[in-house]
Design brief:
The chain is 7% helix and 69% strand. The protein has 173 residues and is mainly beta.
């Protein structure tokens, strides 16, 4: 996770300098379940800001829990991180409830570290690009606080289904 900290900082710097600062800008995070067919738990950091009336950009970054596989011959640790650059077309359903389909691009990062007793440690880093398709909703339950939920499937080298839920803080109105 520390390795990807510069990416996270760049991510928020780019979107904090958005020209639409007079619009509704949301930032927050939550929990993601997915990442692999076995399912991993991840921490999600998210921001959303409008481009036009109903078109919203919703980029997010998810750090999935590291997975360790210990055998008699080697110990392997796998870390998975996903950067999603999604667009949402939002529809007001009822008061304070917004639903949206989403589509976008995922850039996935896989880091492997294998420790072989007597031979040392070997590391490998991989990345892959996929297409996100899904939908979600956001309910504003306080003046500056909303809850959200999203279900997205990534088509590509890292095929996966992710369910994310969390809270978003309204920074600008």
């Amino acid at each position: 996770m520390v390795k990807h900290l510069p990416l996270l900082l760049l991510f928020f710097l780019c979107f904090s300098l958005s020209p639409s600062l007079n619009a509704q800008w949301l930032v927050g995070g939550g929990v993601t379940l997915g990442g692999t067919p076995e399912g991993r738990l991840g921490l999600n950091v998210k921001t959303t800001f409008p481009i036009t009336g109903r078109l919203v950009l919703g980029p997010n970054l998810t750090f999935f829990a590291a997975e360790t596989d210990d055998t008699q011959t080697a110990d392997t640790k796998t870390q998975f991180t996903a950067l999603n650059l999604d667009a949402q077309l939002q529809f007001d359903v009822i008061d304070n409830l917004v639903m949206y389909p989403l589509a976008g691009v995922q850039i996935a990062f896989l880091d492997f570290e294998t420790d072989i007793p007597g031979l040392g440690t070997e590391t490998e880093n991989k990345s892959d690009v996929g297409i996100n398709l899904g939908g979600g909703g956001r309910y504003q339950f306080l003046d500056r606080l909303s809850g959200f939920g999203e279900l997205a499937y990534t088509v590509g080298g890292m095929d996966q289904l992710n369910f994310t839920f969390g809270v978003l803080f309204h920074l600008v109105e």
